[in-house]
Design brief:
By secondary structure, this protein is of the alpha+beta class. The chain has one domain. 19% of the residues are buried. The protein has a six-stranded antiparallel β-barrel. 16% of the residues lie in helices and 42% in strands.
Length: 95
């Protein structure tokens, strides 16, 4: 319950204009957390400075993904919400 409240508070910080999607989950994490593949085969690239968080993410964990601009997204692992949102770039597929 605390994780859900934390995730909702983070979403609220984006304001009404943020477009977020909570229907995706992790299919695979590779490259020590550098590459995250979603269940729909979309591929997200993680900045090297953030892989210390994402290398601990596991398949089937649910995500909240908020659009920043065309190919950039803020992503929150709902199971590890204490990591906060991590900026990722869409390499292929769609969100």
């Amino acid at each position: 319950m605390k994780k859900l409240i934390f995730a909702c508070a983070l979403l609220a910080s984006f304001g009404a204009s943020a477009e977020c999607d909570s229907s995706h989950w992790i299919n695979e994490v590779v490259g020590d957390g550098k590459v995250i593949t979603l269940e729909n085969e979309a591929v997200l690239l993680v900045d090297d400075s953030e892989t210390y968080n994402t290398n601990l993410w596991l398949p089937t964990e649910d995500l909240i993904i908020c659009s920043v601009d065309g190919n950039s997204f803020k992503v929150l692992d709902k199971d590890n919400g204490n990591d906060g949102f991590i900026i990722m770039r869409l390499a292929s597929g769609s969100i």
